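From the shared-data thread, chain only:
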Amino acid sequence: MYDTSNPYKWRYYKTVEYPFGQWTLTDASLSPDNKYLAYTSIRSTVCLAPTDPNDLGDPYNLDLSDMGNGRTNNLGYRARFGGSFGIWSIRFSGDGRELVAGTTGGSIVVYDIESRRSLHRIFGHDEDVNAVCFADSSSPHILYSGSDDTTLKVWDTRSMGDSREAGAFVGHIEGLTYIDSKGDGRKCQ
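Structure, as tokens:
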């Protein structure tokens, strides 16, 4: 990890491990309070490492396939694609309590950090989900997802049970690899 507060002179201060890496790290996200870094690879495990240079402990391992009580949610993916899912994109909610992940096979996972379980896992796209974010820093309910299927979708976590998006933006000619919220709950870029 580096302190980049001075863009002309980055200062190294800490190294963290990712014991589950497969080929590359696919994404990383800094918590809103800057105390944790979430990072992942093409696995269903996210590492959550404290950014404090004095905390030399191992990162916390979060299994995003865990639906609580030791149950995993890989069955739907295995049935459709023959294996466990990998994560392409990860973002913290505005309050830092949840993570949203875009995964292989077109699914979106919403994960509660405190309870250490997935709240939602839906198959909302026809291809890998490369980009996810929360729409508003003050509310964890509205999400955006972008996929190789060339669509950007809007989700409301209060109504994700039927796997239908709240809205979709079609017409892109290439897969989407990055999206970010304007922070107003209505616009993304």
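The first helix runs from residue 75 to 81.
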